[in-house]
Amino acid sequence: MMIILGLILLILGIVFGIPILTTIGVILMLVGAAAWLLGMAGRPIGGRSHYW
Questions:
Q1: pLDDT band at 42 (very low <50, low <70, confident <90, very high)
Q2: Do residues 25 and 14 make contact, with C-beta atoms less than 8 angstroms apart?
Q3: Alpha-carbon gap, residue 44 to 27, rounded angstroms
Q4: pLDDT band, very low/low/confident/very high, at 51 (cuts 50, 70, 90)
Q5: DSSP label at 49?
Q6: What confidence category does residue 38 fall into, taking pLDDT thresholds of 50, 70 and 90?
Q7: Longest dimension (CA), the chain
Q8: How far apart, in whole angstroms, are the C-alpha atoms of residue 5 and residue 27?
Q9: What pLDDT, on a 0 to 100 scale, did the predictor assign at position 44?
Q10: Separation between Cα atoms, residue 19 and residue 44, nearest integer Å
């Protein structure tokens, strides 16, 4: 979910020329990808045993 939201913000930031949306979109995509990879590795994230 976080990766999708980041992608949407990234696209909106590029289309409308708003750099803060682009930056937030990239950050959300990176955090979402990191949480997803850690969850796939079996590490608990935020008290959850898995993270989609």
A1: confident
A2: no
A3: 21
A4: low
A5: S
A6: confident
A7: 39
A8: 11
A9: 72
A10: 33
Q: Token digits for 43?
A: 């590490």
Do 33 and 45 touch, CB atoms closer than 8 A? no
Q: What would the two tokens of residue 31 be?
A: 């955090």
For residue 28, the tally of other CB atoms under 10 A from its CB is 20
CA 29/CA 7 separation, integer angstroms: 7
DSSP string, 7-28: HHHHHHHHHHT-HHHHHHHHHH
* Rounded average pLDDT over 7-33: 96
Q: Any idea what the Cα angle at residue 33 is, between residues 47 and 52, rounded to 5°?
A: 50
**What pTM value is reported for the model?**
0.78
